[in-house]
Amino acid sequence: MTAPGPAPIPTPTWVLLHYFGGSARSWDPLIPALAGRCVAPDLRGFGDAAPGGAMRVADYADDIAGLLPEECVLVGHS
Q1: Which terminal Cβ of the chain has fewer Cβ within 10 Å, N or C?
Q2: What backbone torsions phi and psi does residue 8 show, to the nearest 5 degrees?
Q3: What is the mean pLDDT of the chain?
Q4: Per DSSP, what are the bridge partners of residue 75?
Q5: What DSSP letter does each residue of the chain carry, written as one string?
């Protein structure tokens, strides 16, 4: 008799958010470990992103909400 192995665990996308004033480059040491399962965007006006003009925190939140897949792990640091 054989027992079935464990069911595969779904692999969510990891969304890595940088600190205010930083860039997605702050996640460079972690990105290889996530092997194509992550996205690390630059917030508007930071890193390689285009300038955002006068931005409110709610504007950044709206930008990020538009990037989030249905299931994800959201990670940030400050």
Answers
A1: N
A2: -60, 140
A3: 86
A4: 16
A5: -----PPPPP-PEEEEEPPTT--GGGGTTTHHHHTT-EE-PPPTTSTTSPP-SS--HHHHHHHHHTT--SSEEEEE--
37 Cβ contact partners less than 8 Å away, ≥ 6 residues apart: 11, 12, 13, 14
Q: Which residues pair with 17 in a beta bridge?
A: 76
Predicted confidence (pLDDT) per residue in 24-46, tens digit = 999 999 999 998 889 999 999 99
Beta carbons of 45 and 55 less than 8 angstroms apart? yes
Output the pTM of the full model.
Answer: 0.78
